[in-house]
Design a protein that fits this description.
Mean pLDDT: 93
CATH superfamily: Pleckstrin-homology domain (PH domain)/Phosphotyrosine-binding domain (PTB)
Structural class: alpha+beta
Strand order of the largest sheet: 4-3-2-1-7-6-5-8
Number of strands: 12
Shape: globular
Order of helices and strands: HHHHEEEEEEEHEEEEE
Low-confidence stretches: none
Radius of gyration: 20 Å
Distance between the termini: 59 Å
CATH topology: PH-domain like
Helix content: 25-40%
Oligomer: single chain
Number of helices: 5
CATH class: Mainly Beta
């Protein structure tokens, strides 16, 4: 009887908690469950991220240039965040915005759309097991795409979670160790190396590889 009462009491407490959740809190928990499935025990900084709620967006829609809004009209903007994009050739760092809609991801420079990735064509999302904020968005090897997108994000757990949930492609996210390969374009590939060091750095080394410290 005692065991049965314990189970009934626990079910009642869980029911009371669930019924008391706001819509915003429910979304937060759903996102954190996805983040846990991807990163728990795999990437440094995950435990510290648990207490930090995800924001709906880092920038508002009216923070975007009107020309960009006109170019993506008809799509509902779900999330916008500042990022650093690294060129595929030379790895020069450039300030950009990552705009996620209900159907595509856009890399935006001021009033220009530099690259559009439709979620239906997205091949993968890669990040390292270290505490850096590098995210590589893998795209198809075709004439429509310039190559994979190399980004550095301040809120890496939030960005990857939002992206894979909107694309409905949680299974394509990989947390890699040591290095990863990315497509430069026209069938060519590059290598990115991850290593630990006293201070964070991202640079092109003597061998031509992108090194992330």
């Amino acid at each position: 009887t005692s065991e049965m009462l314990r189970k009934i009491c626990m079910r009642n407490l869980v029911r009371k908690y669930c019924r008391g959740l706001t819509a915003e809190r429910k979304v937060q928990l759903q996102q954190k469950v996805v983040t846990s499935a991807i990163f728990c025990g795999k990437k440094e900084g995950y435990l510290e991220s648990l207490s930090q709620p995800f924001l709906d967006t880092r920038l508002k829609e009216n923070d975007l240039n009107p020309k960009v809004l006109q170019l993506i009209r008809g799509e509902i903007i779900k999330y916008v965040t500042p990022v650093i994009k690294y060129d595929r050739n030379g790895f020069k760092a450039r300030e950009r915005l990552l705009v996620l809609t209900q159907s595509s991801a856009y890399v935006v420079e001021m009033a220009k759309i530099k690259q559009k990735i439709e979620y239906s064509t997205l091949k993968g999302i890669s990040t390292s097991n270290l505490s850096d904020g590098i995210v590589v968005i893998h795209v198809p090897d075709d004439n429509k795409q310039k190559g994979d997108v190399i980004l550095q994000c301040e809120h890496v757990f939030e960005v990857v979670t939002k992206l894979c949930m909107l694309a409905n492609k949680q299974s394509v996210v990989k947390v890699v160790k040591g290095s990863l390969r990315f497509r430069v374009g026209s069938g060519k590939e590059g290598t990115m190396v991850f290593t630990a060091g006293p201070e964070p750095q991202v640079f092109k080394d003597k061998t031509g590889q992108l090194t992330v410290v």
